[in-house]
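Extended Data, panel c. Modelled sequence:
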Amino acid sequence: MIKLENVSLVFQGGSVALSNITTEIKEGDFVYLIGHSGSGKSSFLKLLYRDTYPTKGIIDVVDMEVSSLPKWKIPILRRKLGIVTQEPQLLEDRTTFENISFSLEVLGYDAKEIDAKTSTLIDLVELQDNAYKFPYQLSGGEQTRVAIARALASNPLVLLCDEPTGNLDPDLSIQIVSLLEKINRAGTTILMATHDSSIVNRRKKRVLELSDGKLIRDETEGTYV
């Protein structure tokens, strides 16, 4: 599903973002990517959806060799991935329904399919009472749910989440993680970057830990306290 072999990312000027990363994430996994600010978490995720490319090494994501992927194939890769960031980046002049349906319009669904699928996604993230509210009328947790629903519009094989609970209080954070776990149980592979150790310690999942661009811990489910 996701495989990195001896992957390094060195920025112009010599700053090392990632150093010799080798790991594999299998279909159906739920994995936390942890580490302090500047440890390389965002760089790791950006490599997977080809927002940047490695200085060396091989990256395979959903049966595509991302490390050598030509530009014209990047949209094909990203249709297989859902991306959720810390800032939901919703369209402020569109309702919850419209924010989600717009993604489906871009994907080429017809009007009937868009209405049906948008309604299904709204039900999934439990926003039935907020379907016709604008982003400014939603809480931070509700906005994150909209962003998750939007990311699921393309039926992605993998959901990449970059600090989706970073701006939320502990209770809302747990609600978002519970939603992601439900999505994972339905078959979507999830990689979630977070600095929130309380979530990681409470939810027994595999953990990848970065420090100064190096992978210093790879613990499978149930092996840590």
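The beta strands are 2-10, 16-25, 30-34, 56-61, 64-65, 81-84, 158-162, 189-194, 206-211, 214-219. This feature is highlighted in the accompanying rendering.
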